[in-house]
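A favour, since you know our structure tokens better than I do. It will help me judge whether the discrete encoding reads sensibly. The space below this message is yours for that.
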Amino acid sequence: MSALTDYQNKYQSARLERRNGILQVTLHTAGQSLRWGFLPHGELPELFHDIGADRDNRVVILTGTGAEFSGPRATPGTSSFPSRPTIERIDRIHWEGRHLLMNLLNIEVPVISAINGPAWRHSEIPLLCDIVLAAETAQFQDSAHFMSEVVPGDGMHIVYPLLLGINRGRYFLMTGQTLDAAEAHRLGIVAEVLAPDKLLTRAWELAEDLTKKSTLLLRYTRLLFTEHLRRQMHELLGYGLAMESLALLEKPEAPAGGH
């Protein structure tokens, strides 16, 4: 078990505050919108583990900072990996990639996402939450994988075909399609679209309603709702990450002294 005091100031990529059993997790980079990279990729698996191990958390709200939920948006045709990563880097990506999503799903209380703006990178994270709210400014695109010469094998290949349907999900991943908040709502991947200044208020309103329920009702409903997702991750996530890593072997070797 863990306590909030053990991890509240542990992570550079998240600001944590809790009131009446509701933990708000605000992702950021130096106080601005989250810039995806090796720091959050390494921190979020541990953060989600700590949250899940804290029995005083009864509901979790996951949100971002500033104009974007996560970025930066990749430029089409620009590879996320211009050269072949070292085997040590590949092993780290594989380990963190598996634990990132599994530890999120292993949080045994309801999780609400409040997507404050475009989620250009790893939008599967907020979309895996139980209740998904989006600001009117939110957009969704997998900018960092197929369109950037990387196999979308770190969970995107599971989440988007599940949410959009297999054909529409594959189209989304292979074309770099962008979905705005209204279209995402029409397609059923977000539950509500709100004005940006109303987003967190609504998330807290829903969270406060949930905390009126008994603890075991909350925990076991979450377990039930995530079981299918966890099974999909167990079966396909490691394989997808392996394919993602294997495809990087055709990249040129990094210059001597490079990483």
Summary: The chain has a mean pLDDT of 95.
